[in-house]
Amino acid sequence: MYIQGPDALQRAIDRMLTEANTRMAVGKNEEASRSYHKAAQFAEQVIEMLEDADARRSMTIRATEYKQRARALTSKGGMDSKRIKPVEDHEADEVAYSDEEADALEQQILLLIDDSPKRIDWETIGGLDALKNELKFHYGLAMAKVPDGVAVEGWNNIMFYGPPGTGKTLLACAVANKLSATFFNVKASHIVSKWVGESGRL
Question: What confidence tens digit (pLDDT) does each residue in 80-108 have?
Fold first, then answer.
């Protein structure tokens, strides 16, 4: 079972630090500052989950360091705007977020990324041979270069359904692994809030 814990948060921290270094290298100090700030927020979430006192102390030091770097870059890199970006006429059906809202949304999305598909192959899944062959055929068909004048129809989307424990997530992981795709492990509780209702978060 996939659980959002310290390991997932640590991966998110590493991504934010890489992002910060990349942005600093090209002189985008304000964006780098935001990346360090997000790394600090992730680190604070890890602290709440750790039970070992030494581990908590070490992570607290790291979180403080990330915050200091974020502040230093903001002081060097100009305005730290929280204004909502204007929506142009041709973007009337798009949603405008403030920087703070966009950062919070990005944090939630990063936590949904699951690296476990890298450890799951077709051979790891017992049985389901007919379904595995069908999946291989259709994603191979979708990626194949079709000769001119030849029309081949394939699947654009696949939905697995069935009771728990029947291999749905494992099959999706195997496909993501073979395609080197980013795998998002999303549960209803991640995107639906009992406080704001379904339509507000889906």
Answer: 433 323 334 334 344 455 566 666 667 66
Which CATH entry fits the domain spanning 6-114: 1.20.58.80, 3.65.10.10, 1.10.10.10, 1.20.1280.170? Answer: 1.20.58.80
Question: Where along the chain do its domains lie?
Answer: 6-114, 116-183
201, 193 in Cβ contact below 8 A?
yes
Residue 139: which residues within 8 A CB-CB, separation 6 or more? 175, 178, 179
Indicate if the pLDDT at residue 59 is higher than 50: yes
Annotate 12-50 with b (16+ C-beta within 10 A) or e (fewer): bbebbbebbeebbeeebbbbbbbbbbbbbbbbbbbbeee
Q: Are 142 and 134 in contact (CB under 8 A)?
A: no
Q: What pLDDT, on the 0 to 100 scale, is given for residue 87? A: 34
